[in-house]
Design brief:
lyase, globular, Rossmann fold, pyruvate, thiamine pyrophosphate binding, six-stranded parallel beta sheet, magnesium, Pyruvate decarboxylase, seven-stranded mixed beta sheet, 3 domains, alpha/beta
Length: 564
């Protein structure tokens, strides 16, 4: 059977488990979109804007298959660049499929100095930009060898776990691709040079350590290595934590699970359990600014391997793949005591996990009104009552701290952006996660982040995605206020910074604007719990819930950090 270039890329995406491509249509990619529409196995998900499309493809790619996005050249691709940067930073397999200028476009621009549509006039802008935002980028300007070049890029996205960029001149989409292998065959590379010194270092540390722990990271999800990691954890009877990026990679009902290490800003028993350990084995973890203290203070007590790099403290070992390291670690004899007391949080409710703060949860210390802690107490109680798991998407905001303590008993049903830390990512990324998993989304977002991407609610309505979006409505970029000048929260009469203030929206009225969905506003724990149940009973449409809280409210760990 003969395939066009567009049909060939469609076939390859399916072979990699991608059945949804997100985007905004443009003439440069319309022939590719036509190929998707013509294939009964594929769906082109038309988003409201390009940034939403990039975030959605990012959310899709986090679920085990490659994500894919296609938008208009120039004005579209550059608008979604932040979503691709998120995938690059947090190592998400994703393909940017772009339609580019033809040879004629480039020739006429060079000869007559007349710009083709969406050209900056400075030559191959998209290609140059996305070379910096992807693991690999190429334009396919000739048919000879095109299939092999496209295959190499798609394999790179899978093997190295990150985004790639493929640009096709728009007059080549319908041209025959020529000969290609029927299947996209490849075998993941495993680098083993560092296996012996890394395994020996782990064995030596475990033999001497009195309180060793394991940190499990997102690479275990990206490469399907969770079972191998848990074999090591269980054989050695090691307490384990996850990072926020990898929350729910294992059910939090596991008896060795001790919590989510979300940030060294939070002086909780979880952070103390990791930071006071005399041996921390980090498997597949990405570390960002919120882990800086932990990484630097542990020194050579931290042994880690992630994305083909192994380290003991600051010492870099020979190249080592996570899969090869786990294969070697699982050959170790039992090195740890089996009678140690494990500080597990398995079986604990949200309130149980938060009891360490010795603060009253459900009602905050603001005259009984709803606050961050009350919001998550209501969400935690709601989730424990549901027989079918929700997919939780936690946007970057102050809620990142208490959100880490929501008990998640199902696996791979939690999304956050804690390394790239892009405010607003959580809502559109949940669209991609929904199409990849079919699980109903429950999104928690700050009002500032939601205002950046609020048009995504239209995509929820149009695609009948029954998401529940809880907006923490305090009228400001509270996380920026906290980071820039925390004295606003400690001094009762102090005014907020002018530039963190938001225009107050009536989020509950959004269904009238977007022609569908449910809109609610709540001001108490009981109201929020009732609103969640009301939304749950309507699985045919999305719901937005504005959870109104005082502007000076903070989660418990932020209050502890400021000494209040």
């Amino acid at each position: 059977m003969s395939y066009t270039v567009a049909e060939f890329i469609t076939l390859r995406l399916k072979q990699l488990g991608c059945y949804h491509v997100f985007g905004v249509p443009g003439t440069s990619c319309s022939d590719f979109i036509d190929s998707l529409v013509a294939d009964p196995d594929m769906q082109f998900v038309n988003t409201v804007n390009e940034l939403e499309a990039g975030y959605a493809a990012d959310g899709y790619g986090r679920q085990g298959a490659i994500g894919a996005v296609s938008v208009a050249y120039g004005v579209g691709t550059l608008s979604m660049a932040n979503g691709i940067a998120s995938a690059l930073t947090e190592r998400v397999p994703l393909a940017v499929i772009n339609g580019g200028p033809t040879d004629k476009d480039l020739r006429l621009e060079a000869e007559y100095d007349v710009l083709f549509s969406h050209s900056t006039g400075f030559g191959k802008t998209d290609l140059k930009v996305f070379r910096k935002l992807t693991l690999g980028a190429a334009e396919i300007r000739t048919l000879e060898g095109a299939a092999d070049r496209i295959d190499r890029l798609l394999i790179m996205a899978i093997e190295r776990s990150g985004p790639v960029y493929i640009e096709i001149p728009q007059d080549l989409w319908k041209q025959p691709i020529g000969h290609f292998s029927p299947n996209l065959a490849y075998s993941p590379k495993r680098f083993k040079r560092g296996a012996r010194p890394f395994t020996q270092a782990v064995a030596d540390k475990l033999a001497q350590a009195s309180n060793p722990v394991v940190l499990l990271g997102a690479e275990l999800v990206r490469f399907g290595l969770i079972d191998e990691a848990m074999r090591f954890v269980e054989a050695q009877n090691l307490p384990f934590y996850t990072t926020l990026l990898s929350k729910s990679l294992v059910s939090e009902s596991h008896p060795l699970f001790c919590g989510v290490y979300d940030s060294d800003l939070a002086p909780s028993t979880v952070t103390q359990g990791v930071e006071s350990s005399d041996c921390v084995i980090a498997l597949g973890c990405l570390f960002g600014i919120d882990h800086r203290y932990m990484v630097t203070s542990l020194g050579d007590k931290l042994l880690r391997v992630a994305f083909n790099k192994a380290m003991i403290g600051t010492e870099v070992l020979p190249k080592l793949s996570l899969g090869a390291s786990l294969e070697s670690l699982n050959q170790l004899p039992e090195l740890t005591r089996t009678d140690r007391q494990i500080p597990t949080v398995a079986g604990q409710t949200y309130q149980d996990r938060r009891a360490q703060w010795q603060s009253k949860l459900g009602d905050d210390p603001y005259n009984g009104t709803l606050g961050h802690d009350g919001i998550f107490a209501a969400i935690g109680d709601f989730l424990t009552e549901q027989p079918d798991p929700y997919y939780i998407s936690l946007d970057t905001c102050l809620a990142s701290f208490p959100g880490a303590d929501i008990p998640v008993l199902d696996t791979q049903c939690f999304l956050s952006n804690p390394i790239w830390l892009s405010i607003g990512q959580g809502t559109p990324a949940a669209i991609g996660a929904y199409f990849a998993t079919g699980k109903r989304p429950l999104i928690v977002t700050g009002d500032g982040g939601f205002q950046m991407v609020s048009q995504a609610f239209s995509s929820f309505v149009q695609n009948q995605i029954p998401g529940i979006i809880v907006i923490i409505d305090n009228g400001s970029y509270a996380i920026e206020q906290f980071l820039i000048d925390g004295t606003f929260f400690t001094e009762p009469n102090k005014a907020p910074l002018d530039y963190v203030m938001l225009n107050g929206w009536k989020y509950e009225n959004m269904p009238h604007v977007y022609n569908g969905g449910i809109g609610l506003r709540v001001t108490s724990y009981d109201d929020l719990l009732g609103a969640l149940h009301h939304a749950h009973a309507r699985p045919d449409q999305p719901c937005v819930i504005a959870a109104q809280i005082p502007m000076k409210d903070l989660p418990a760990e932020n209050r502890a950090f400021l000494g209040i």
